[in-house]
């Protein structure tokens, strides 16, 4: 008996009992459907996180004061400054893989503009910082190196700050704002980034030259740099090499003995990004588990209905055997029937998953992404479930005695 | 004399059910030559069906030998027996055993599906076979749309479509009225004239009249084995009056 006729017979047999076939595969439909939909959402979220990190700049290293190991005791990295202003220059000049360096001093400030009041995060930095962190400008532009050395009182505002101080963003450039009562001239408005990967509002910020920040906002730290240093490299590979370079350089500059721990930490955003991705990996594995269970349950349903079908069609099996079907022919017929049943369930499930994902992305604006590999995997495992759970009923059918089977009422 | 197409020697069949041994066949020998039309008669429980199952390669004897077309088949396995049934034998059952909700043509094609006949040839041969039994206009009808006699004709078309050497029929007229029974016997006689060997089981003497040889069984043994001049079923039909039987 050739395979085409076998498939035809299987499909016809299933069509004779459309409702029953449908109910049988409902488990597989729902299982596969929910997995496809949830993976689509998971993959979408993953891509979203990746985009957020890309916006922050991926080939990025952050150097903070304080050792990672003792940070618990000391109350967090950066609590006691160990980084020096001269470290910034040293990193720029004495490393191979670092392309950009910039300090970042942060402190919460009161900002006043057009009579309105807002609490935000002030950041003292240098012009390179805008490149390292992929900041672009909606209006105006960045401050320059000269502004840093002359401690110019100029500021760049983030979108959220502008929203809270000005009715019209275009009016901001050229106006004066007060940071902790010191007047600054607004020279630029940053393009919006939205929510950062860390969950904070990246646009709730005001940036001023590092020199100005040290003198007018922070003060009193002398040679120490009261913040972190951001470093950019060309590629992810270079970023890893730069991390090692910087560690060696700073240990030497801070005159640490071999047995002393680092008094700074060099962390990469790529690491943070991959930590976030690991979270989604765990979710994906959980989904795979749910998929497995639902396929198992669906498979048991298929086995059950196939056993019923074998019993109902005992006479048919007897007849087929009498006119020349070998046990193998009967076995294949019922296995294929189970495979067709499970695959149709898988196919409908993929359709359902597609539908749900499309609905969620259009209705709630959730990012969803359907991976063809997952679809293939879902269909493949559905078919496999058909083989696995169809085998026992099919074997039972193939072992029937033709005489008994023909006499069955 | 030609070689027998069926040659059963000393067939014994014993069923064991919960310590009780039922001896359905106690040493039956039967030789049938090509082209013979044999009826097996006997009371209920005399072993007719058991005999037919063995002759039909659906069952194996407990002991004894059975040669089909010169080949010993009593020791073959399930798969090989299936092939023998497919290539050498054709079956007609009392209850027709057609696949429900399946057209006459597809029912007739079924044995060829297992013989690996390509689809085009399958269609042609099924149609030819149905025309032979007078159902050339009923190809698309399902069993539910056919009378009992027509269903049995479809079953006969299915039995001959693989060009078997022997047709085995266990009470083929058991579910039919007497006129239709004679029609079916006329069809069997026609097939017999074309050279097919036919063995059928019946408990009606009227039916056995149409065959050329009557084997009488009792208690798992052959009681008598008589060759006779068969009544012509076609002539009987011409003379048939309602209420005659
Ligand atoms: N599968 C079986 N198991 C046990 N006993 C059986 C079986 N088939 C037939 N028999 C017994 O064998 C004897 C002959 O049966 P069977 O060949 O069907 O007779 P017939 O067809 O002439 O009525 C009966 O006594 C019957 O009960
Ligand atoms: Mg019987």
TrEMBL record, chain A:
Residues 290-402 form the ABC3 transporter permease C-terminal domain. This is ABC transporter permease. Keywords: Cell membrane, Membrane, Transmembrane, Transmembrane helix. It comes from Nannocystis punicea. It comes from the Bacteria. It is found in: Cell membrane. Residues 21-248 form the MacB-like periplasmic core domain. InterPro entries: ABC3_permease_C, MacB_PCD, Macrolide_Exporter_MacB.
């Amino acid at each position: 008996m050739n395979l085409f006729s076998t498939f035809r017979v299987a499909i016809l047999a299933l069509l004779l009992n459309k409702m029953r076939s449908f109910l049988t595969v409902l488990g597989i439909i729902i299982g596969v459907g929910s997995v496809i939909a949830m993976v689509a959402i998971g993959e979408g979220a993953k891509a979203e996180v990746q985009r957020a990190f890309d916006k922050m700049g991926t080939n990025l290293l952050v150097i903070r004061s304080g050792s990672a190991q003792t940070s618990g005791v000391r109350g967090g990295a950066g609590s006691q400054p160990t980084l020096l202003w001269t470290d910034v220059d040293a990193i720029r000049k004495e490393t191979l893989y670092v392309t950009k360096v910039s300090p970042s001093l942060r402190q919460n400030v009161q900002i006043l503009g057009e009579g309105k009041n807002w609490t935000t995060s002030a950041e003292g930095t240098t012009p390179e910082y805008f490149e390292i962190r992929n900041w672009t400008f909606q209006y105006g532009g960045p401050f320059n190196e000269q502004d840093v050395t002359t401690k110019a009182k100029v500021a760049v505002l983030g979108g959220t700050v502008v929203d809270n101080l000005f009715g019209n963003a275009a009016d901001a450039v050229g106006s004066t704002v007060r940071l902790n009562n010191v007047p600054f001239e607004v020279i630029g408005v940053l393009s919006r980034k939205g929510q950062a990967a860390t969950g904070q509002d990246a646009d709730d910020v005001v940036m001023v030259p590092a020199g100005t920040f040290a003198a007018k906002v922070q003060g009193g730290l002398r040679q120490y740099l009261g913040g972190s240093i951001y470093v950019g490299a060309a590629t992810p590979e270079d970023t890893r090499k730069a991390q090692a370079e910087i560690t060696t350089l700073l240990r030497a500059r801070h005159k640490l003995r071999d047995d002393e721990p680092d008094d700074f930490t060099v962390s990469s955003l790529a690491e943070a990004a991959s930590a976030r991705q690991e979270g989604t990996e765990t979710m994906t594995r959980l989904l795979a588990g749910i998929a497995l269970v639902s396929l198992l349950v669906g498979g048991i349903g298929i086995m059950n209905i196939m056993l019923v079908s074998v019993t109902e069609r005992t006479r048919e099996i007897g007849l087929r055997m009498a006119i020349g079907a070998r046990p193998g022919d009967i076995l294949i017929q019922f296995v294929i029937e189970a495979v067709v049943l499970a695959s149709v369930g898988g196919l409908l499930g993929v359709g359902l998953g597609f539908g749900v994902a499309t609905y969620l992305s259009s209705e709630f604006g959730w990012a969803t992404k359907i991976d063809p590999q997952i679809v293939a995997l879902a269909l493949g495992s559905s078919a496999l479930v058909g083989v696995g759970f169809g085998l026992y009923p099919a074997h039972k059918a193939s072992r029937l005695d033709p005489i008994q089977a023909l006499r069955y009422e | 004399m030609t070689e027998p197409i069926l040659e059963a020697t000393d067939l014994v069949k014993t069923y064991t059910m919960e310590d009780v041994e039922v001896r359905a066949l106690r040493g039956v020998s039967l030789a049938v030559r090509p082209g013979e039309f044999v009826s097996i008669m006997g009371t209920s429980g005399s072993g007719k069906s058991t005999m037919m199952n063995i002759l039909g390669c659906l069952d194996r004897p407990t002991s004894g030998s059975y040669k089909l077309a010169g080949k010993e088949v009593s020791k073959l396995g399930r798969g090989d027996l299936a092939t023998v049934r497919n290539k050498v034998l054709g079956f007609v059952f009392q209850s027709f055993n057609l696949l429900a909700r399946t057209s006459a043509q597809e029912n007739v094609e079924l044995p060829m599906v297992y013989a690996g006949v390509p689809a085009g040839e399958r269609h042609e041969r099924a149609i030819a076979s149905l025309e032979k039994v007078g159902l050339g206009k009923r190809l698309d009808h399902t069993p539910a749309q056919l009378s009992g006699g027509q269903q049995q004709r479809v079953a006969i078309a299915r039995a001959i479509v693989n060009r078997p050497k022997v047709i085995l029929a266990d009470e083929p007229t058991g579910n039919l009225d007497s006129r239709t029974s004679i029609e079916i016997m006329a069809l069997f006689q026609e097939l017999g004239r074309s050279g097919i060997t036919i063995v059928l089981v019946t408990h009606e003497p009227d039916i056995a009249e149409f065959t050329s040889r009557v084997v009488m069984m009792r208690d798992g043994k052959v009681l008598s084995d008589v060759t006779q001049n068969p009544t012509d079923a076609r002539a009987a039909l011409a003379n048939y009056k309602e209420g005659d039987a």
